[in-house]
Design goal:
This is ATP synthase peripheral stalk subunit OSCP, mitochondrial. This protein is an alpha+beta fold. The chain contains 4 helices and 4 strands, in the order ααβαβββα.
């Protein structure tokens, strides 16, 4: 089997410098760079309950509006009941917290400060 010289040299350099354990980080960074090069924008949406197909489709369409026409949304959904309701959205390098748990915590702190 023939291996690409760049890969062989990279593995050799990592090994010689005692950094072979960093290989997974290098691979992850490369995957991120290539994903960006392809115009893919990662997006993670966390909700308290699983979204049904219609809501997911509507959400995907709304999120796509925030992207350029050449960018492609790569949507991942997660479920976390501790957020109570609403959603957390990570899209590209932006984060939006629209969760009920954060709103409750914010209003609770405001009431405590007022008393």
């Amino acid at each position: 089997m023939k291996y690409n010289n760049l890969v062989v040299n990279l593995l050799g350099a990592l090994s010689e410098n005692g950094r072979i354990q960093k290989l997974s980080g290098v691979i992850n960074a490369f995957e991120t760079i290539m994903s960006s090069h392809r115009g893919e924008v990662p997006c993670t949406v966390t909700t308290a309950k699983q979204l049904d197909a219609a809501t997911l489709k509507e959400l995907q369409a709304a999120l796509q509006l925030f992207l350029n026409k050449k960018e492609k949304l790569i949507l991942e959904t997660k479920v976390d009941p501790t957020i109570i309701g609403g959603m957390l959205v990570n899209i590209g390098d932006k984060f939006v917290d629209m969760s009920m748990s954060t709103k409750i915590r914010t209003y609770t702190n405001l009431i405590k400060q007022a008393v």
